[in-house]
Amino acid sequence: MAKAVGETPLMQQHNAIKAKYPDAILLFRVGDFYETFGDDAVKTSTVLGITLTKRNNGDEKSSQLAGFPHHALDTYLHKLVKAGYRVAICDQLEDPKQAKGIVKRGVTELVTPGVATSDKLLEHNSNNFLAALHFDNEKVGIAFLDISTGEFFLAEGDAAYADKLLQSLKPAEVIFQRNRQKQFKELFGTKFFTYTLDEWIFAEAYATESLLKHFGTHSLKGFGIESLTTAIIAAGAILHYLKDTEHPNLGHITSIQRIDKDEHLWMDRFTIRNLELFGGEGQNTLLKVMDNTVSAMGARLLKRWIIMPLNNIDKINERLNTVEFFIKEVDTRNKITHHIKQAGDVERLVSKVPLKKVNPREVLQIAKGLQQTEAIKLICESSTNDYLKRLGDSLNSCKYILDKIIKELNENPPVAAAKGGVIATGINEELDDLRKIASGGKDYLLQLQQKEALATGISSLKISFNNVFGYYLEVTHAHKTKVPETWIRKQTLVNAERYITPELKEYEEKIVGAEDKILQIEMQLFEKLLNELQDYIAPMQVNGHVMAILDCLTCFANNALHFSYKKPLLSDGDILDLKDSRHPVIERYLPVGEPYIANNILLDPLSQQIIILTGPNMSGKSAILRQTALITLMAHMGSFVPASDAKIPLTDKIFTRVGASDNLSGGESTFMVEMNETASIINNITSRSLILLDEIGRGTSTYDGISIAWSIVEHLYNSSASPKTLFATHYHELNELENKLPGVKNYHVTNKEVGNKIIFLRKLAPGGSTHSFGIHVARMAGMPPSLINRANEILVQLEESRNSNTDEAVKQLSAPKVQLSIFDAHSDTFDEIRKLLETVDINRLTPVEALLKLQEIKGKVK
Q: Model pTM?
């Protein structure tokens, strides 16, 4: 690289390092500051709101400069990453005092949204996944890694499956091949933070070698992933990216798990959105209602349980039976919850050890977590529940390292190891002696002074210190004859002489170097402790995962007690039978004292496969659809459900098409989106699917809409899969299907009319509804009375001509009886007023004449 004219050695060094990381902001350590230069400085000053200055070096492009103190790195780093920048941290790799020439520097970490480990960059209740994708014809391999916990997952499937996983696990960053950018945007949109890599990285041999080398195994069979070639390539790309971003310490990534599509109840991204499982700040969602966990580990796992419910009846019943056990065994539940709360975020704390980001206080918290593990293990193993016994058996209190941490660390260590005071007394003899010297220096000097005064008879003897020759004994001239020959004279003053002794010199050497030596020994002992702690990472990660499971199950038990949830009965049959079912989210946010109107729902492929649900708008049709899906979902998670009794068939897929969702930015209308989502459902149903359709066909004309809705019902009924279906519609014509197809039944949401008002009873009843009460809803929304009256007139005329041609009926509509515009009603009068005003010269009008004219105009309006 050619040296620019007038470029200093420091800038030469900066530019050489920057050239290796062109797409990252380079934080360049200079003394006590992190500096940024050129374009980096402009971006940094804008994001952080810090001052942008200029250096007078004649080079306009690189003259910008912005920096901040090194101790403020955590504060500023997360702002840059949150703003979507990759940040390379360039540190001084040697002590500037020891350096010959320019200090050696290098990038110690490249921080991106997907590889963040700082607490300020992470949300404690959410995973921070880095995802990698590999495209291979119709197949997509996908891998997810949370570097802050060590959790590593991979999966393989079509683009829809990859899309569902991306939308569900919401990675902070997605990496893929550089030549696939267009394909990625077409399939998954532009909402993800992405980074592209060279094609050669996505090679099977390279990926397999990377994984085998990392895990230290001869094959991948032990992880059950050896056949997932495209997913292995994606996982290999993640390991490469970590190496690329200066993250070599990955001892906490101890295993890799397969996400198997067949092991989970499938929901596409539309369903996840439509059921309002998750949401932004302030949104009332299923997660918000269910998440009463007491640890960050439990909160993160609960999110995964919601988006990946189980599809194995034995595993589901294992969870349900354990929740039932916790409901009965109050003391056991409370004790386990208490211990989990005290343990801290075991998963993230443990991951900080190999990353070399753990501080002494966090190491002590790891030990406290192990103490809680020990207590939980005893509780689980002594219980009568088999699943709890098994979970307890997998816990490991790592007794050796637990005792070692408690013994060696101070009870209240500092946050930073470099501040000292980390190691307890009695661990290292030399350390204890040095501490006595450092802290008891004055006492020692006083004792030495008294001892020498007594031995020599010099009563005025005193010990002092200066920077020239350190500690000395000062003797006034009156006593200098008593000075022993072993003392060495260093300085003569007007009134006194100053001496040093071998003992004083030896002590001086000890006390001056004591602080540095103390810190050095403490750091060595702490590093040794961390090295030993590394051997226990895998069992401690298991502890964290087991605690997360227990946290979720005790949370389910507490939810069941507080919200009156009941244990569902899952079966291999086909009948869905819910008694007194309620919407878990809506019922939590009703006004105080207002009960939720519960409903019975029965879906049976033989007698009632499809329910056509009609009723007034705003009457609660959508709530009934959603609560059916949410109760099914909660049961598959292993949670009790909001119903007095629930018989639920094992379900493999929940599909929903609820509400309008324009994709105008993508150039698609409401109707196009609606048809895309419905087609996805029709093409993927099985006999174990649950389908919820709300207002299908409303995005097009009435005839088109009725035709499409009718044919969808017929298709679902005649399908060999015979999926259980709830179909809410405002097309009352569909009620006719009950007479034509035996498995189709009409239901409506009841209401009553009081005078000219409508009251929604929100109760489900057999039979179809006759009309939609749309005009009533318009009145409730505050439409003008004149508009409402006119709408009623039109409705009466259309209903009178129902049996004739609709187009003809619309043409025959009478003109409005009440004119809506005052200008049309009084057009002659207004013409007169207009002419009158045209003849008036305002500039010559006196105030009295003006009042008279106004009176004249007013008379005409009457």
A: 0.81
